[in-house]
Design brief:
Low-confidence stretches: 1-36
Helix content: 25-40%
Bound molecules: ligand G3I
Mean pLDDT: 91
Structural class: alpha/beta
Shape: globular
CATH superfamily: Glycosidases
Number of domains: 1
Largest sheet: 8 strands, parallel, barrel
Radius of gyration: 20 Å
Length: 375
């Protein structure tokens, strides 16, 4: 069934709330979502409290009805997992291809969802023509400026927020060496965050209305890395450099939650600078079997409690306006490949699109929160 059929006449839909393999509750509801007798969706709960709830997506899966249906029903925000990155959008110098990314934006518009763009500047996963091109700083500067103008310009008015720069700091809070910073860089090598400032200014010029984010991992709590980002944002705000938000990725492995106790304080200090905070890439890895399913079912409860804690921290902080998971379903997740098959199943929906305890935890947090006005 093509995805577009999902927007047709009201039809029966279902979400299974399955706590353990042996216990399944099937909830059937109509297409109107909150219509009389229908189970409310996560996106309805999120909208009520003024939060965008999102998922990273791969448009190759839009033709799979459960994928498209779950995405459209439960989320009001999408972010391309890969198809807005350089290898997809500028596969050869000056040759732009927005076909796959356009499919994401079109899906979002059909289903009244917002789009986060990801990403414009990253030190890794760039195309070979770029990394092996032996360009001078002046050439690289022109290439990057052109890329930002073309991509952000292409989506002006349709992508509401961009991850302009991704993962530029190391764990000690130093800027990573990269093609954009100092290898050879865009002409500002050794100038600290000057190169980041420049691309934020280019992005603002390309779409003055889009929100501009800096996005990174392991910066959820108070630590050397988040301190460095805080200092950069503080400096940018003081000098009028355009920055609107900070993305806290929230990839959690090995139940390592040491960052979460200071998550509220970290969000609060960014809020005090006047920027928004988005949880941009949340997933909570648990040990999996060879078929990708959870190895130990009690882990689903532990996972749910982590989701509950993060969702509650976001809801409690008015500047936290976005809560996004790094995928829709455990069927498609970067985690198993990244852990050599050891861990995964980190999302809100399992491989069969059944809602997991983690879904219920986030849903409960959203539905119990007082409504807040939209920013
Ligand atoms: O599209 C090519 C395909 O043509 C080729 O045949 C195949 C061979 O390996 O590779 C495909 O590209 C892969 C791409 O995902 C699309 O599937 C890349 O190899 C692979 O490296 C890439 O991984 C992505 C990674 O970012 C690098 O871009 C992951 O899916 C994606 O989940 C991950 O996302 C990142 C965020 O952008 C930033 N934060 C961390 C997060 C997780 O690593």
């Amino acid at each position: 069934m093509p995805e577009t059929e999902l927007t047709g006449q009201p039809r029966k839909r279902f979400v299974r709330f399955r706590l353990f393999a042996s216990v399944s509750i099937v909830v059937v509801f109509g297409a109107a979502g909150s219509a009389r007798g229908a189970a409310p969706s996560l996106r309805e709960q999120a909208a009520r409290i003024g939060i965008q709830v999102g998922a990273a997506v791969n448009p190759a899966h839009f033709s799979e009805p459960p994928y498209a249906l779950t995405l459209a029903r439960e989320f009001n925000l999408v972010e391309p997992e890969n198809v807005m990155k350089w290898p997809a959008t500028e596969p050869a110098r000056g040759l732009f291809n927005f076909e796959a990314a356009d499919a994401v934006v079109a899906f979002a518009e059909r289903h009244r969802m917002k789009v986060r763009g990801h990403n414009l500047v990253w030190s890794v996963h760039n195309p070979a023509w770029l990394t092996q091109g032996q360009f001078t700083p002046q050439q690289l500067s022109a290439i990057l400026h052109n890329h930002i103008l073309r991509e952000v310009g292409h989506y002006a008015g349709r992508v509401f927020a961009w991850d302009v720069v991704n993962e530029a700091f190391d764990a000690r809070g130093n800027l990573k060496h990269s093609i954009w910073y100092d290898q050879p860089g865009i002409g500002l090598a050794g100038g600290g965050s000057a190169y980041i400032e420049r691309v934020f200014r280019w992005a603002r010029a390309a779409d003055p209305k889009a929100l501009l984010f800096y996005n990174d991992y392991d910066v959820e709590g108070l630590n050397a890395k988040s301190d460095a980002i805080y200092a950069m944002v503080k400096d940018f705000k003081a000098r009028g450099v355009p920055i609107d938000g900070v993305g806290l990725q929230m990839h959690i492995f090995n139940f390592d939650t040491h960052n979460l106790s200071s998550l509220p304080a970290n969000m609060a200090r960014f809020a005090a600078l006047g920027v928004q905070v988005h949880i941009t890439e949340m997933d909570v890895a648990i040990p999996i079997r060879t078929d990708g399913r959870p190895a130990n079912l009690p882990d689903l409860r532990r996972q749910a409690e982590i989701y509950r804690q993060v969702a509650a921290s976001c809801v409690a902080q008015p500047a936290c306006t976005g809560f996004q998971t790094w995928g829709v379903t455990d069927r498609y997740s970067w985690m198993p490949a990244a852990t050599k098959g050891r861990a995964g199943a980190g999302l809100l929906f399992d491989q069969d699109y059944a809602a997991k305890p983690a879904y219920r935890a986030v849903f409960d947090v959203f539905s119990n929160a007082p409504a807040r006005s939209k920013r």
